[in-house]
Specification:
By secondary structure, the protein is mostly helical. The protein has helices spanning 11-14, 24-40, 64-71, 83-90, 109-116, 153-158, 184-199, 212-229, 232-242, 262-293, and strands spanning 53-55, 61-63, 101-103, 106-107, 126-127, 134-135, 141-144, 150-152, 176-178, 245-247, 253-255. It contains 10 helices and 11 strands. The strands form 4 sheets. The protein has a 3-stranded antiparallel sheet with strand order 2-1-3. A 3-stranded antiparallel sheet has the order 4-5-6. The chain is flat. Residues 223-230 and 242-257 have low confidence and may be disordered.
């Protein structure tokens, strides 16, 4: 009883039921439970989903205030969850508000009336504005980028045109996003779409990704630093190739390519001349210093030992 060796339990006493392979019905039931949870609960804050709701590139839904709390630099994540837990949920898909799109759900009219009368305690019921069917678990719902209006997938595909059915904003077929997709093909398609947008420097909301302009400025700055680090002769050769002076009718010097202002071209030529003059002086100065160290006027004294070598004893001095 108390691990004293008096009783040895057998396997059939420890394992009551043997492990079995889940059936198709079990898998569907598990997926249905997950769909119900993600359609009604924010995975970041574990609070009920309520407008405003945002979605990332994978089609998952979040409360907008939970995403804002996660993006705060001094924040520790959403209440009840740490920053690392939020990062594990988002999987590096959300770095700024540009990476999410606010999904505009059409609320059921009965629920709206209950909300106005303050007698509703249930979760909001979202419906398709075209078919008036409920959007939720077991239905294929989509939303459009960049406007964010949600519909049934069949309503968007059957109605011709490339404009939103609510706001008339144009969209493309690639920007029809499945909400909480279940099929692996839909998930792979969303991942491929996001990869293509990243290569174009765009985010999920089709806005310019943060840092693209900064990288360009950084490259320009590195090029200028590299130019400053080059030798003077190389600089002169580069600028002389760029600035080919040509005398105009008024006698001013202009640049055929690059700098067109005559005053700027003259100033640049003057600076180059000063740099060249300084380089020549520096070169001559170093040669004079070397010559002074090895002057031919000095005679080596062969007399004396190592203690007296280097100076001469006056002739009138007593020895």
């Amino acid at each position: 009883m108390g691990n004293d060796g008096g009783s040895i339990p057998k396997r059939r006493e420890l394992v009551k039921e043997a492990a079995r392979i889940p059936t198709t019905a079990d898998i569907k039931e598990s997926e249905q439970e997950q769909q119900e949870y993600y359609w009604t609960t924010c995975p970041l804050s574990h609070q009920p989903l309520g407008l405003p709701v945002v979605s990332d590139s994978a089609g998952k839904l979040y409360n907008k205030d939970a995403v804002l709390e996660f993006l705060l630099p001094a924040g520790d994540g959403t209440p009840g969850m740490s920053k690392s837990d939020n990062e594990e949920v988002l999987q590096d898909r959300v770095r700024s508000l540009k990476d999410v799109v606010e999904v505009k759900f059409h609320v059921e009219k009965d629920y709206e009336d209950e909300r106005l009368s303050r007698s509703s305690l249930r979760n909001p019921v979202w419906v398709c504005p075209v078919t008036n069917k409920t959007l939720g678990p077991g239905t294929k719902a989509v939303y459009l980028v960049p406007c964010g209006h949600s519909f049934l997938e069949s309503a968007v595909k059957e109605i011709p045109g490339q404009n939103c059915l609510v706001c008339n904003e144009p969209f493309s077929t690639e920007n029809i996003i499945n909400i909480l997709p279940v099929a692996s093909a839909d998930k792979e398609w969303l991942a491929t779409r996001m990869q293509g947008l990243q290569e174009q420097g765009l985010t999920h909301s089709l806005k310019k990704a943060t840092g693209v302009g900064k990288k360009r400025k950084k490259n320009v700055g590195s090029a200028s630093v590299e130019y400053l680090a080059t030798p003077i002769q190389t600089k002169q050769a580069c600028i002389s190739d760029l600035l080919v002076p040509a005398h105009t009718k008024s006698g001013n010097v202009t640049a055929q390519s690059g700098i067109k202002n005559a005053a700027t071209a003259l100033l640049t030529a003057k600076v180059l001349a000063e740099e060249e003059d300084k380089a020549k002086r520096r070169k001559l100065g170093s040669n004079n210093n070397l010559k002074s160290l090895f002057s031919s006027n000095q005679t080596r004294q062969k007399d004396g030992d190592f203690m007296t070598r280097g100076f001469s004893i006056p002739a009138g001095a007593k020895r």
